[in-house]
Design goal:
- By secondary structure, the chain is of the alpha/beta class.
- It has one domain.
- The protein contains five helices and seven strands.
- Strand 3 and strand 4 form a beta hairpin.
- Helix 2 crosses helix 5.
- It is globular and about 50 Å long.
- The two termini are 21 Å apart.
């Protein structure tokens, strides 16, 4: 998210860059040997491969990078293990420009009930105008409660148990 200008806190230390790859993809040995501590690799297929990524140039090199709409869903995938919910909310709060049709497509294709419910819980609170353009009736939210954080409060609308992230 920082590469797209969405960073809420300046970290005291350099944090690893998040990499997402399909489950069977392996990083080259040379990459793992020299850069393993600079990157946190998550192997998952909760979003379709290649949907919402673009090639970005950095000097003479280029890398595939998630666009903001995909990146926020990837960020939410890491809540609470790798990402605090309050920071995810604060980053989403800064995302005043979101392409609703594209976000709708990503949410419909997303296989993670947790990510979809967290997104709607947080996005609803932001009050952004683009939120009203999302059609919740076309999204499969699964069934049953999801416990994101033990000791949290039950949100009946989104069937989530989370700690109070709005006051942290």
């Amino acid at each position: 998210m920082a590469e797209h200008g969405f960073l809420h806190f300046v970290p005291f230390q350099e944090l690893p860059t998040m990499l997402f790859a399909p489950p069977k993809v392996s990083l080259p040995v040379w990459f793992s040997r020299f850069y393993a501590s600079s990157f946190a690799l998550t192997r998952t297929n909760f979003l379709p491969d290649g949907e919402g990524v673009e090639q970005r140039r950095f000097g003479e090199s280029s890398v595939w990078m998630s666009v903001p709409e995909r990146a926020i869903l990837e960020l939410l995938h890491g809540v609470p293990e790798k990402q605090m919910i309050n920071e995810a909310y604060q980053i989403l709060e800064m995302m005043t420009v979101v392409r609703p049709k594209f976000m709708q497509t990503l949410l419909q294709e997303c296989s993670s009930v947790k990510v979809k419910r967290l997104f709607f819980l947080l996005a609803e609170r932001t009050g952004h105008s683009w939120f009203e353009d999302l059609d919740q009736s076309k999204i499969d939210f699964g069934s049953g409660c999801r416990v994101i954080e033990e000791g949290g409060t039950f949100n009946s609308k989104w069937q989530l148990v989370v700690k109070d992230w709005s006051e942290i």
